[in-house]
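Hi Y.,

Following your request, here is the sequence exactly as I used it, all 437 residues.
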Amino acid sequence: MGVSHLVPFHLTTETEHIMNASLQPRQDLQIRQMLSQHMLQALHVLQMDLHALYEAIARETEENPLVELPEAWKPSAPLEDFIDKLAASTRTSLTEDLLFQLREVERDPVSLRVGAQIVAGLDDRGYLVESLGAIAQAARVSVDEVKRVLRILRGFEPVGVTARSLRECLLIQLRASGSPNPCAMRIVRDHLRDLSQNRIDRIASATGHSLDEVREAAAIIRSLNPRPAEAYRNPPAPPALPDVRFAVVECGIVAALINQPPLPRVCTSSQDYLRNANGELRAFARAQLSRAQTLRNCVELRASTLLRVAACVAERQTSFFTDGAAPAPLTLVEVGEALELHPSTISRAIMGRYFQFGERVYAFKLLFPARVQGDTSNARVKRLLREWIAAEDKRKPLSDSAIAQQLAALDIAVSRRAIAKYRSALGIPGTAERRIR
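Below is the corresponding structure, written out as tokens. Let me know if you'd prefer a different format.
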């Protein structure tokens, strides 16, 4: 698929040049703090679904007097009509999302069992309220093994989940930026109570940071999510808006199109503000323009990252789109390696996202099926199971053991018990119920 190469989701060449330049320590610190804040915002925008993105853009135009909505900022009429016809939301649960991400990096059944026990110990905020000892006992493993799996889960979306306290939740989110603001880290560790009472002077005196540095750090902290699982508690969201639309074009090539709101534009009067305003008003105008440009940059980066991921996935799942075949096994790591992006970036780009193909909307996770063995996916096993049972002699229906043997002949190792689970999930009755006498 012809998609131009875009800058990976990390520091741009220009930023690297700035960071490598010979700067005074204070200048270097200021640039790093600015990058840290921008990276946090970019990560936040990347993981927004389309509903949240529309709301963020609308909110910016309400709060920022120097930007306005373009006339055609809402989704196109055909897409709105299509969305109105969807029967219900296809949102997934926090448990499903976390365990899906865990299966991407862990194949060991013991680790998966431990992960399930940890997730079961989360409260509505996403905080871990079960003790590590109790989890270890329930999973029949050591506390060290629980800690190991917990570290893995803390790298997943939503960032901050599995924390055991507000302080730990915020620290996890700060570290996720890759370049955490030192002042923000210090405030979260030692001065959260002062921050809650807006005691900026006291924090500056205790930490040795300037008032501006403390205010900037406070703004970063307030942009974090103290309840990372909150979105999963809310009433069902509106029907899912697809972020990506796939279509089969000439020669069987699968094309990907990003659904994205038009970006807010700067008012024509903004230049008058900059030319005629006094010092204080001019500084305000510059700050508002910078804020609008940062949002534009983050939204554009979100679109380019999502387009690259979609194009890569389309190349690897061509048969799904052209032939109606089951999706081939695919992992976040494989896509990340192909695009030179970290797997966590791929996760942020697809988690909770949907794509449209034809007249249907699917969860993006459908294109990342887990493996049963080798290059065989769960979806393929279910498809074979359905086909074989549909074609069986109803006077001598296939037993679960016989199906397991037929799969083994295809070098697919699935136990009889697993066959029974697949059959049950497909709503297919057992051998006795299928037999015609």
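The longest strand covers residues 244-248.

Thanks again,
Q.
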